[in-house]
Task: structure prediction
Amino acid sequence: MTQETALPPSLQVEWRDEIAILRLARPEKRNALNDPTVLGIGTFFSQLPAHVKVIVLDAAGENFSAGLDLSELSECNTMEGVMHSMMWHRVFAQVELGAVPVVAVLKGAVVGGGLELAVSAHIRIAERSAYYALPEGQRGIFVGGGASVRVPRLIGVARMADMMLTGRMYNAEEGQALGISQYLVESGAGLAKALDLSARIAANSPVTNFAVIQALPRIAETNPHEGFLMEALMAAIAQGSDEAKSRMRAFLEKRGKKVTEF
Result:
């Protein structure tokens, strides 16, 4: 990030070699997402330094994010509402389909827009304090940050409909079982786990990491015939890189890392 780039006070950035930590910093508002914060996330992802290989998405205070700051919608007309939602779509697509993997640390409220941001990440670590909800139905609105696309991929349409219609909440253990998170840790241990996983990810070939976050979701959503072709093309690109050839030589010469238990 260049020094002249200005992020809103609701975001903090910490650099740890090849890992960047982007932290939501509105704890007094339970890290509710307003437009400056969402636009700031987009700015951060669009100007990421080339040396960064992984991003950790963290939050100050006891909550990841309690969702949309509802004051953002209070005076919106229909067209403004459409454009507002599409702005969130663009930013969260930068998270999901950016240049590097994103690891999110979830705790406390992961609600509404906060859940939409969380499911844009590639790896999600839930602390035991985390809980998930989509209260838009009780507020007379509908999800607008991509939840109707991303959340059903994880938990199914029926469960998401239940959350929106009845206000049902899932705790951290339930969310882990449903696939909202891939890791479940004790409260306060999320960032350390995220940094450990990020170090593992950063040690991968950048081409492979890029293929996983860019090609894999598209392959999963396409028909099998197109998916097989896309996989073959991506495999050829990855294995044709100089780094892949070097790593394969090291493995064959018994200099490479072996598969070890996590």
User: Anything to note?
Assistant: The chain has two domains: 11-202, 206-252.
